[in-house]
Amino acid sequence: MATATHCRRSKTRRLLVVHSVQHRRRLTAYFGLLNICGVKGGETVMVNAAAGAVGSVVGQIAKLKGCKVVGAAGSDEKVAYLKELGFDVAFNYKTVKSLEEALRQTSPDGYDCYFDNVGGEFSNTVISQMKKFGRIAICGAISTYNRTGPLPPGPDPENIIYKELHMEGFIVYRWQGEVKQQALKDLLAWVLEGKIQYREHVTEGFENMPAAFMGMLKGENLGKAIVKA
Ligand SMILES: NC(=O)c1ccc[n+]([C@@H]2O[C@H](COP(=O)([O-])OP(=O)(O)OC[C@H]3O[C@@H](n4cnc5c(N)ncnc54)[C@H](OP(=O)(O)O)[C@@H]3O)[C@@H](O)[C@H]2O)c1
């Protein structure tokens, strides 16, 4: 039988795990956008899986830095949430007639920075619309994690060469020590000032973990998908 102390300890441990997951997501957004993309005010930033834990923070930091932010998400509810967060443009990539056309209409001059959470065909379409010297942070490839067939082909190399694009993959653990402490301070200040908001999508019960995972891959979560055991 669980004692009160045991329950308190395991509740504390659960909270710590949740908070460390959230920290990791925010740090991923922070370093990917600021260090890999190196965004500057006035630039146009595109992010996908934009209502997710990483994407929603990417968009909010980009707004703090004075950028125009475009987000793609997989439901109208998520699109409404992105507008609440201050994204300049948000669209439902599942219902637009053509992703290529939606991106072109949104920013006819193209994109300076692309924060990629999704990979696959989606990315090839965005990368074909980057501006000269555009920067692409390859953060995740969620569209291909669960694939059963071969990987889809990558982006057109001539586009990358002639536009002199910079494309870099990264893992958040690259940044440690002082630089990480500074990032945590910045993020904490933005959260406390209400400049960065986030949501969690909580599923109760360890036994529901497989369903929660499949739901996340289908985009059923709004905010970080968390299972409370
Ligand atoms: N590089 C790093 O250090 C690092 C660290 C943490 C996370 N990551 C990566 O960052 C990405 C985002 O993580 P997260 O924690 O923000 O995820 P999340 O909050 O769990 O959101 C995942 C979202 O991805 C979208 N998605 C799922 N399958 C998709 C598909 N086939 N095509 C397009 N979109 C799809 C869904 O949103 P829609 O409804 O909008 O489709 C889903 O809600 C993941 O790829 C993850 O692996 C990388």
TrEMBL record:
Residues of the Enoyl reductase (ER) domain: 2-227
GO biological process, one term: prostaglandin metabolic process
Molecular function GO terms recorded: 15-oxoprostaglandin 13-reductase [NAD(P)+] activity
Keywords: NADP, Oxidoreductase
Classification via InterPro entries: ADH-like_C, ER, GroES-like_sf, MDR_fam, NAD(P)-bd_dom_sf
Source domain of life: Eukaryota
Enzyme class, broadest EC rank: oxidoreductase
SUPFAM superfamilies per the UniProt record, alphabetical: GroES-like, NAD(P)-binding Rossmann-fold domains
EC number(s) on file: 1.3.1.48
A Pfam family that the UniProt record links to this protein: ADH_zinc_N
Protein name: 15-oxoprostaglandin 13-reductase
